[in-house]
Amino acid sequence: MSDATLDALIFDVDGTLAETERDGHRVAFNRAFAEAGLGWQWSVDDYGELLAIAGGKERLHHYLQQQHPEHPLAGDRQAIAQLHAAKTEHYRQLLASGTIPLRPGVRRLLAAARQAGLRLAIATTSALPNALALLERHLDPAWFAVIAAGDVVAAKKPAPDIYHYALQQLGLPARSCVAIEDSEHGAIAAQRAGLTTIVTVNDYTQAQDFPGAALVLDSLGDPEQPCRRLAGQLAPSPFLTLAHLQMLLAASRSS
Ligand code: XBP
Ligand code: MG
């Protein structure tokens, strides 16, 4: 075993802290389309496929290229950015209404980390206003030493850039931090930055592969909502603790 000490947890946002993709971003895109008089509607299944493209603006651009290449919006980056800004507003309203809860174990693990004096950070592909909307509704943005979001880096996940940025802002090496992600893109980004990575899957990501993850769970778990281990070692029961994370970090650093 190495003597790697856990100093910080770096959380993805969408799909990890809450089910924001299916119930938040997708719905907000559809509301923005309706408001703009566009007859487009992204179903739950459609959106699952569109998630292959990281970033809302990039996803819109891809959709237009694939489905409506003749539409005046296709290729018009400025118009896409405007439509995306309208979607962001709808997303913030949705979150403020309180209909999207945190996933099991998120609040508990964050509280434990704070109590233990660990530092917390966010590394998300989502736009900063979106990340803040979720943190403001359920947690407190001030708990996070770093909130790395959206266009602060040029290349989105699965590129490691957002994690490199978060680590640089934390002033910590990857070997003393753990990343918590929900998707293949996110896990690849974290691993490329050299981070020990825990994955908590959701409906959109449960069939994905996570070969480099230290542990794959169906949630972080809570006493009344136990988590299930899908892959990896050191299965927590009934929920993931800081002690587990410390052991996983040490094990991955010694291998
Ligand atoms: C997931 C994403 C985001 C959201 C939409 O981000 O790919 O693009 O789907 O957010 P995360 P924006 O890294 O938190 O999983 O529309 O603001 O891009
Ligand atoms: Mg995610």
Keywords:
binds magnesium ion, seven-stranded mixed beta sheet, binds xylulose-1,5-bisphosphate, 7 strands, 255 residues, alpha/beta, globular
Strand order of the largest sheet: 3-2-1-4-5-6-7
Bound molecules: xylulose-1,5-bisphosphate, magnesium ion
Low-pLDDT sequence parts = none
- Strand percentage: 5-15%
Determine the structural class based on helices, strands and strand pairing: alpha/beta
Number of helices: 9
**What does the radius of gyration come to?**
18 Å
State the share of residues found in helices, binned by percent.
40-55%
Amino-to-carboxy terminus distance: 8 Å
Instruction: State the total count of DSSP E strands.
Output: 7
H/E element sequence:
EHHHHHEHEHEHEEEH
Q: Averaged pLDDT, please?
A: 95
Main sheet record: 7 strands, mixed
Shape: globular
Quick recap of the structure?
With 255 residues, the chain is an alpha/beta fold.
Q: Would you mind describing this structure in some detail?
A:
The chain is α/β, with parallel strands linked by helices and 255 residues long. It contains nine helices and seven strands. The chain has helices spanning 20-35, 44-50, 56-67, 77-96, 106-115, 128-138, 161-170, 184-192, 242-254, and strands at 8-11, 119-124, 146-149, 177-181, 196-200, 215-217, 229-232. A seven-stranded mixed sheet has the order 3-2-1-4-5-6-7, with helices on both faces. Helix 1 (20-35) crosses helix 4, helix 3 (56-67) crosses helix 4 (77-96) and helix 4 (77-96) runs parallel beside helix 6. The protein is globular and about 60 Å long. Residues 12-15, 21, 25, 54-56, 124-127, 130, 157, 186 line the site of xylulose-1,5-bisphosphate.
